[in-house]
Amino acid sequence: MILRDLVNATVGFEELSRETAKPSKSLHRMLSASGNLSMDNLAAIFAVIRAKLGVDIQVHAVSAA
């Protein structure tokens, strides 16, 4: 739900739809509480948000020890 809020606050679903070539309704469903977001779609959404905000996203593994 945080990603949905971020999309609404920055890019908007219509622009995200144009940038990802995915229907706006599908994006709304993907980012709903019961949505089923694939890694490909998540990467596409992050790419648009990164470009819009001019930020980089980094992932770090954390040991469970």
Gyration radius over CA: 13 Å
**Into which percentage range does the β-strand content fall?**
under 5%
Mean pLDDT over the residues: 93
What is the string of helix and strand elements?
HHHH
Number of strands: 0
> Given the structure, what is the number of helices?
4
Form type = globular
Biggest β-sheet strands, sense, barrel: none
Question: Between the first and last Cα atoms, what is the distance in angstroms?
Answer: 29 Å
Query: Given the helix and strand composition, which structural class is it?
Result: mainly alpha
Q: How many separate structural domains?
A: 1
Stretches with pLDDT under 50, minimum 5 residues: none
Task: Give the helix level as a range of percent.
Answer: 55-70%
Give an overview in words.
This protein has one domain (2-53). It is an all-alpha fold and 65 residues long. It contains 4 helices and no strands. This is Transcriptional regulator.
Q: Key terms for this structure?
A:
58% helix, mainly alpha, 65 residues, 4 helices
Which helices and strands occur, and which strands form pairs?
Layout (H helix, E strand, L loop, with lengths): L1 H8 L3 H8 L3 H7 L8 H15 L12
Brief characterization of the structure:
With 65 residues, the protein is an all-alpha fold. The chain has helices at 2-9, 13-20, 24-30, 39-53. It has one domain (2-53).
